[in-house]
Design a protein that fits this description.
The chain has helices at about 45-50, 70-75, 95-105, 110-120, 135-145, 165-175, 190-195, 215-220, 230-235, 260-265, 275-280, and strands at about 5-15, 20-30, 35, 60-65, 80-85, 150-155, 185, 200-205, 210-215, 220-230, 240-245, 250-255, 265-270. By secondary structure, the protein is an alpha/beta fold. The protein is globular. It holds the Pfam family ABC_tran.
Amino acid sequence: MSALVSVQNASKQYSKQSEGLHDVSFELRTGQVLGLLGHNGAGKSTLINALLGAHDCNGTIRINGFEPITQRDKIMQSLSYISDVNVLPGWMTVAQLLDYTEGVHTGFDRSKADELLRQTDIKPRARIKALSKGMKVQLHLAVVIATNTQILILDEPTLGLDLVYRDTFYRHLLEWFHDGERVLIIASHEVSEIEHLLTDVLILKQGRTVLQSSMEAISEDYFILDASDEYRAEIEAMKPLSSQKGLGSTKWLLHSHFSEQAETLGAVYGVKLADLFLALQKEAV
């Protein structure tokens, strides 16, 4: 099965002092959900813009076999993007947006969009600029789902939304994802919120990859040890990635090859992606 998204040695230099991306590589096939993680300035937006064909970079990028800049019209037939900033035309009504999309996109299924919007409080005659942020995100997702896109990139899509809108958004998103051969990329600061959705993770720091792994491998490669402080010297010899002080004990993030030694020192738990993300962000690149 060929990759729907292929990135090989992608690099972007903004100036002699500023490197936006350095030698990033990954591939995504049908059924994969990639969490693209990193603090502000890590290179997430640079990578997303390169995938969208918004700027050039060194290396090779292919979306469904097409080059994002020279064949941008081709990639947009199978690629969609939703950001935290509303890009829908505020002067249009909801119905006008659907009419327009139906006219310019041959793959748009108007009945599917109408069906999705009937499950919301969004009215066809409502002006887009009058909608709440949560409603705008729901509308955008409904349009994307109705175009039957194969590859969807989400950039902080639920930023500023309340729990009800977040729950509805992710429910519709998962229904869309499991209804076809799709690839999903989610860039987010809300690591705990998206962890259960992911099959894979790519963590960037200062434009460089600090972790690229499947979620399954992460659970096999790392663990948390909750141990009494009397064992501090022994545990520090295992070179923990991080530690969190508690009442009379400390939680340590360790590599799995120390699991046998750790079992005799305290309680062992599975690692959460947020724990690993924070630990790697504190390490030097």
